[in-house]
């Protein structure tokens, strides 16, 4: 008699399982928020009857779940279950920047991601950026698009948990890694030399490739130019110094590579929508940051929670 073999399949996602809507938190009055916190910020533990995503864009936060402290680092996120008590405080002296999303959903398998820290890849971060951009958009269908981007983000999180083999391997492992190494070297050089005057030719020479090859590879892998990335790094560093240091605005401008205060103020306002002084006053008062800040979602898989002492 042939013995039956039991096969365990990963949870299925049917079309009816992906219903999703954003939920306004009655305590904060928001459903999606890009939060920029002062290093001394703290929140009380609370619980609610809807789901919540917490994604750390910059810095580190200490997350309390049912009274137990855990640490979330840059690029990591966690799904907080309905009615689960939770609170967030900065971890260390750096100002944290993070995204919160409050939502209702019928994705039954989402609960299996509880007690797990996941790390976002580039596609995950792209979906979060698109969600934030559409949420503040006023064009027709923006709410629906924001909802669709977030639903895809959640489905990818579930698949990352149940699938061990990537669906699409690169056509050339060696070539892909060589390109990634070029971009990483360029990013590292820019991050380490923000206060200096940097031109593409000097950067290409430091990385060891031609200027045209650097421009093409960087744009291909990051979907933005080298100079756009440099400006974002400088403004991000300026925001951190405004919150964490005692330097005046002129000193911060020089520290971030700007030759004059007016130039720094113009670039800062272009990306953040408010002046450096207004930004500092807004964050210290605990008010929401400017909407354009949501679009500066940074770059950051999966591993068990790290329990850390209080």
- Name the overall outline: globular
Oligomer category: single chain
Order of helices and strands: EEEEEEEEEHHHHHHHHHE
Q: How far apart are the first and last residues' alpha carbons, in Å? A: 59 Å
Q: Structural class per helix/strand content?
A: alpha+beta
- Under the CATH scheme, which class of the largest domain? Mainly Beta
The name of the CATH superfamily of the largest domain reads: Regulatory protein AraC
Overview of this protein structure:
The radius of gyration is 21 Å and the shape is globular. The chain is built from 9 helices and 10 strands. It has 310 residues and is an alpha+beta fold. The chain folds into 2 domains: 157 residues, Sandwich (Jelly Rolls), CATH 2.60.120.280; 123 residues, Arc Repressor Mutant, subunit A (Orthogonal Bundle). The longest helix is centred in the middle third of the chain and has 21 residues.
């Amino acid at each position: 008699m042939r013995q039956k073999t039991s096969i365990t399949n990963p949870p299925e996602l049917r079309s009816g399982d992906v219903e999703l809507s954003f939920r306004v938190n009655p305590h904060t009055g928001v459903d999606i928020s890009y939060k920029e916190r002062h290093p001394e910020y703290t929140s009380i533990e609370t619980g609610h009857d809807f789901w919540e995503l917490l994604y750390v864009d910059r810095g580190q936060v200490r997350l309390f779940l049912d009274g137990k402290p855990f640490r979330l680092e840059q690029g990591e996120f966690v799904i907080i279950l309905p009615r689960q008590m939770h609170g967030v405080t900065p971890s260390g002296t750096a100002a944290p920047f993070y995204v919160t999303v409050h939502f209702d959903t019928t994705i039954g398998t989402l609960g299996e991601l509880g007690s797990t820290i996941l790390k976002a890849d580039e596609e995950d971060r792209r979906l979060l950026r698109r969600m934030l951009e559409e949420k503040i958009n006023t064009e027709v269908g923006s709410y629906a698009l924001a909802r669709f981007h977030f639903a895809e983000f959640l489905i990818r999180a579930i698949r990352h948990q149940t699938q061990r083999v990537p669906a699409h391997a690169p056509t050339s492992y060696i070539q892909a890694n060589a390109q990634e190494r070029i971009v990483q070297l360029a990013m590292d050089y820019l991050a380490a030399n923000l206060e200096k005057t940097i031109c593409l030719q000097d950067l290409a020479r430091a990385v060891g490739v031609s200027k045209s090859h650097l421009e093409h590879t960087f744009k291909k892998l990051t979907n933005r130019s080298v100079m756009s990335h440099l400006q974002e790094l400088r403004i991000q560093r300026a925001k951190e110094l405004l919150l964490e240091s005692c330097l005046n605005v002129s000193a911060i401008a020089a520290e971030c590579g700007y030759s004059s205060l007016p130039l720094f103020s113009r670039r800062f306002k272009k990306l953040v929508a408010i002046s450096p002084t207004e930004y500092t006053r807004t964050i210290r008062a605990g008010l929401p940051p400017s909407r354009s800040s949501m679009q500066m979602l940074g770059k950051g898989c999966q591993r068990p929670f790290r329990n850390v002492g209080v």
